[in-house]
Amino acid sequence: MHSVENFIAGSFTPAQSKQTINNFNPATEQIIATIPRSQKEDVEHAVTSAHSAQKEWSKLTLEQRADWLDKIADALEEKTEEIAHTESMDTGKPIALARRVDAARSVSNFRFFAAFGRQHTQQTFQMDDAINIVHRTPVGTVGLITPWNLPLYLLTWKVAPALLMGNTIVAKPSEITPLTANMLAQTFAELGLPQGVFNLVHGLGPEVGQAILEHPGIKAISFTGGTDTGRIVARTAAPMFKKLSLELGGKNATVVFADADLDNAVDGAVRAAFTNSGQVCLCGSRIFIESEIAEHFKQKFIEKVRAIQLGDPMDEETEMGTVISPEHLLKVESYIDLAQKEGGVILTGGTREMTGYYGPEGIGAYLRPTVVDKLPHTSRCATEEIFGPMVTLHSFTTEHEVLEMINQSEYGLAGSVWTSNLERGQQFAQQIESGIVWVNTWLHRDLRTPFGGVKNSGVGREGGQWSLDFFSELTNICVKETREN
Ligand code: NDP
């Protein structure tokens, strides 16, 4: 069992209160670690440490910081197996998925931003008699708050550009999945990253997270998590005029037109629905099918969903592991009950797979991927974010009709459209109120592109240039080249 500590000023240290929180493996209910239950005073210590490192870190050139990012990428790559194992144990996700997605992307986040930073050129705007030079400076100490579904993947997505642009960091991972963030801190310690540049404070959202939001010495907050928490973040940080990036929840649509390559669309829709037990913010949990192919699509879709290999996350053959916790299992199940009350028909799933794994009542965290038909698109199950292995199916007859159904959502994070007419796909995608739309694919990511949501799915964009913009302040310097008059 690990005894995880905070990482502040280059040292591992317990919470000043010495209080701890247990960390569980959702597949076995075993306690796998204890983490510090930190409070305001620990955040204060972390901010002081970050401030004292700020000057030296920001004095490095972009090239030197890019070199650091490459070193970090190399060190994480060497730990791929350890990361995959740890992430799988902490989240209940299949180890193959943790290796392919979580570990690989954590490495490429650093590698990508290193290369992207090196290509960065200073922007200038020439006038007849003057030149404007856009000068970037670091924001200062930034707060990074991340969720449990893709723990290291999402943390490194923020850490890499924040470091590149010369900021120092106070980070808080979800208390449910703290282990790979701790591995990142250990990696920084091994590499000798200057002390205080990266600080990690573990604990509960309303305690440590809130203290980070409230600290006047933290100048920007990059937050990924649920929409309700996002409201708290905005409410707390906005009066201090902190820079804010909010990546929040979603209720994403998958739209299958009758002219789609059906096998490809079925594969894509299954992947979009159930990757990571449906616990990816980009998952397509509302599937809209053009009525003339609806029955055929459903038949193939159900067949494929039933074939998903559910089981021990540590087994290489497993395609779906547990959901994140017993509490979350109960939440998803409450939506399955609600679906039936709302008149829905469960086509497959709806039941636990291996009961008796844990919990006082022998609760199992393995829920069969669940497909619900016949619910109105306005039902609660089809409008609220469930964030688990449960999707609803809806049919439509016209583009106009499906567009209206999709855009009625309070969310606007992502979507996918399946059609053999690429022009139509593009036109249709432009009308979806959403930050990202894929045509004939899903979760196909180019890290240079803007990432973020509209409506209740967030504010701001990260990725490529947008991350550099968020993690820097811009000063326009206008130099007059000729004398006045
Ligand atoms: P939460 O909003 O519950 O938590 C996110 C983070 O915020 C956690 O570290 C949490 O800590 C912390 N937190 C909680 N309360 C506060 C507070 N008062 N002040 C500051 N921080 C706080 O989200 P989940 O962890 O449950 O993650 C799932 C959600 O994340 C889903 O809604 C999903 O859609 C969204 N998400 C969005 C993504 C995007 O890019 N748009 C990507 C991935 C997920 P603790 O865990 O200790 O409570």
Characterize the structure shown.
The protein is of the alpha/beta class. The chain has helices spanning 40-59, 62-78, 80-91, 95-119, 151-164, 179-191, 205-214, 227-237, 262-274, 291-306, 326-341, 380-383, 399-407, 422-431, 464-470; strands at residues 2-3, 6-8, 11-13, 20-24, 31-36, 124-126, 130-138, 141-145, 168-172, 198-200, 220-224, 243-247, 252-256, 284-290, 345-348, 370-373, 390-396, 411-412, 414-418, 436-439, 454-455, 458-459, 472-480. Strands 15-16-17-14-13-19-20 form a 7-stranded mixed β-sheet, sandwiched between helices. It has a 6-stranded mixed β-sheet with strand order 10-9-8-11-12-22, sandwiched between helices. It has 15 helices and 23 strands. Mean pLDDT is 96; it is low at 356-362. The longest helix is centred in the N-terminal third of the chain and has 25 residues, at 95-119. It folds into 2 domains: 2-248 and 457-476, Aldehyde Dehydrogenase, Chain A, domain 1, CATH 3.40.605; 252-439, Aldehyde Dehydrogenase, Chain A, domain 2 (3-Layer(aba) Sandwich), CATH 3.40.309. It is globular, with a radius of gyration of 23 Å. The structure holds NADPH dihydro-nicotinamide-adenine-dinucleotide phosphate. NADPH dihydro-nicotinamide-adenine-dinucleotide phosphate binds next to helix 7 and helix 8.
